[in-house]
Amino acid sequence: MFKPLIFYIGLRYTRAKRRTQFISFITFTSVAGIAVGVTVLITVLSVMNGFDAELRERILGMTAHSTITGRYGQLDNWLGLANRTEHLPHVLGVAPFVHGQVMINADRQVSGTLLQGVLPDYEAKVSEVATKMLSGSLNDLKPGEFGIILGVELANYLGVIVGDKVTIITPQVNSTPAGILPRLKRFTVVGVFKIGMFEYDRNMAMTHLDDAAKLFRIEPAVTGLRLKLDDLFNAPRIAQELANELGDEYRVSDWTRAHSNFFKAVQTEKKAMFIILLLIVAVAAFNIVSTLVMVVTDKRGDIAILKTQGLSNLSVMGIFVVLGCIIGLVGTFFGVAGGVLLASNIDTIVPAIENLFGVHFMAADVYYISEMPSKLIWADVYQIAAMAFFVISAGNHISGLASFQSQSCRGVAL
Question: Are 287 and 33 in contact (CB under 8 A)?
Fold first, then answer.
């Protein structure tokens, strides 16, 4: 079926003569449609890969891979447990923490936030906040000085900078002769951090572990221990091993319990987008059907001559299979090239479009990430190219060959 003559004739049919320039134009639009579909598919999946990677980095940069708490929500002898846990397999770092919901007030601005007490030397082992400081540092948190570090969005909302005072209001109350009053404490802003994720930058503050324990009245205990593991994707298994090692006195959880549904939703959306955008390629393939139908109709005389020269029906069919494959292959090639080029430069192209038209596609107060990330995975590129070519070959050539079956008979009659 696929002899050199068949390839030669099929390749020649892709070039236009004066009387077949309209067919060549339809061929060009078919190639362009497939190229655009493949380009969009590669770009969208690369952007979704970028979102997934950025979210994992930013969320897990602040969220512990695993957490150990006591049966009643606090740990009394945390230092001994930390020394014991730090030497267990798969554990890279351990840090104590105290956290609770508070109200933070500065001048006339009030906001709810999560206040987390940390030990600077320990915290650097389990999170990246020490590397995300815009001003000040974690080491500026001194016990008894009641210093506080704010997320950049929270600091902007409150209108405070390093050195300003803020008031923390806790859910606990004080009983006084004047009645029940909320617990208030003045803190000094000693630093501002920026994680790059609105949820943390707007709703999180940090202070020294001892000051947080005094504020929430749990000293000398802590809320729990945060662990950094050597393999975050095996966190459920490692957490179960830690639970078996530590016994029933402690509760061990991992990050997948808090964020697994979110990341599963991202993966599900990626698969759905792949299917939807692949249908765009399938729609573009209908242009090839039109092209093959018109080519077969236009070449009825050639078909009759070839068959009288002894070419079998299968060989004549092969000519149009080659023609359809060339159109699909060229369209897929340009689509892959365009998709790789666009996905590799999306971080430059999108800001340029935003500056040109004065728009902002990713509002920080709506989306987790305010930039358009992109991560090109070559395995996805190969899969997209293979699937696109398969859809084109399987769907469109079958339709084109069916057209040949009906037109070739009339060509022989002529």
Answer: yes
